[in-house]
Amino acid sequence: MTTSHSVIHIVALTEAGHQLAKNLVEKMHAYKIEDAEQTVDIWYKPKPFAEKVQQAFVRGERLIFICATGIVVRILAPVLQDKHSDPAILILDEAGKFVIPLLSGHEGGANDWANQISELINAQLVMTTANPYLKPIYTVGMGCERHCPLEYLSELLHQCLSQVGLTIEQVHSISSIDIKADETHLIELAKKLNKPFITWNKDDLRTVESQLSTHSDYIFKTVGVYGVAESAALYSAQFEAGQAAELVLNKHKNAKATCAIARSYPAVNPTK
User: Which pLDDT score is estimated for 3?
Assistant: First the structure.
């Protein structure tokens, strides 16, 4: 199966569902839930229904169904592969009260996507996967040259958020290494966005070095860690959630700054 995140189809089978689909598309565009490379279209009572939906699924195109869960299960059953290759599938009721990530919750990103959609339309997220998490903790890690101008930091951060379909409101904090604790424009950026600015020492950051996407010997010789942005993002998410984090976006950079995004999920106390 060839996975394609460039197309999203919203499938509606009733007039009420069709109206919800149109409202959803407007909000996805307005709040940039889809990135610039993606297209979102509405399939209202598509024909032939089974064939069209199954072909889109096999192409790896993401689907939002506004209909009964049973219909979706029966239609997709013949083309299901596995959680590593199936595209993300969401289900909404036609009243827009509930959002269910049906397939590829973790690996395909359906859980996070469903969380975004539920917040967008003020619906209840119905999570049925083994981990009962509703709100992932997202953290941004940033590194930069000394006295990096604010515009380089701000532009890079917003580009990175857009690439993974996040808004700044979903981000817990902005973090870096402790030698950047006095970096004027990193502090200003966090203050402007009303986010905590947190710095960590190299010993803290080195605890997550095995998870880095790249290891820079030059950065290590300079500051004592193999990558500032990824390390800071990972350690912050791990610290806040109380358990291991993962990179949502590997390090991206411009001429003067680097940025990475990580997430974790709050530890669940089984006694509660």
Answer: 40
Per-position b or e across 184-196, b if 16+ CB within 10 A of its CB? ebbbebbeebebe
Residues 113 and 155 in one domain: no
- pLDDT at 39 (0 to 100): 83
Q: How far apart are CA 189 and CA 37, in angstroms?
A: 27
What are the two backbone dihedrals, phi and then psi, of residue 62, each rounded to the nearest 5 degrees?
A: -75, 145
Q: Which residues contact 68 (CB under 8 A, 6 or more apart)?
A: none
pTM, rounded to two decimals:
0.55
Q: Which domain holds residue 258?
A: 137-264
DSSP 198: E
CATH number at residue 146: 3.30.420.180
Enumerate residues 6+ apart whose C-beta is below 8 A from 234: 141, 208, 211, 212, 245, 246, 247, 260, 262
Q: Are residues 78 and 174 in the same domain?
A: no
Report DSSP letters for 150-164, one per residue.
HHHHHHHHHHHHHHT
Q: Which residue has the tokens 């610290």?
A: 239
Domains identified in the chain, total number: 2
Nearest-10 Cα torsion for 82, 244, 172, 119: 30
